[in-house]
Amino acid sequence: MSAATTPGSASVSSPSTDGRLVRHGEGEVHPVMGDPMRFIATAAHTGGAYALAEQTVRPGNGAPPHIHHNEDETLYILDGEFEAVVNDTLHRLKQGDFVHVPRGAVRSFTNAGPRDGRLLIHHCPGSASAFYIAMGKLPFPPKLEDIVAIGQRHGIEVVLPKKA
Question: Are 108 and 84 in contact (CB under 8 A)?
């Protein structure tokens, strides 16, 4: 596989010509922030081009404010009600809604509904999948310093609350 890189970007290799079929319910599952994230395609499957995961999120749970320095991220709501904040703009999302978040933007999301919600999370390039797999190995609830350390290794910055 040959890798193509540009300054400040993640490495992308030529994807396999064999393709990939993942059936309903298949794929590796890791408990990210206490909620199951099913990896449909990781950077390893796509030559680094993208990653795709489905996550089921409990009410009130989600992802804290963070920045992906190497990947664009998209969220597609499969079921439930979510709130996503992108650079201080609140988006209320429901089934079928989609939000694109460019690399470098501060983002967070929360399940704002009364029951579990599901969403597809897409990263391009796919290097973020390694971050989420590492997060899935942490005990729940994870320690903030562990999240920050894993993020630093993968180009993801946790945005800490400003001190008064």
Answer: yes
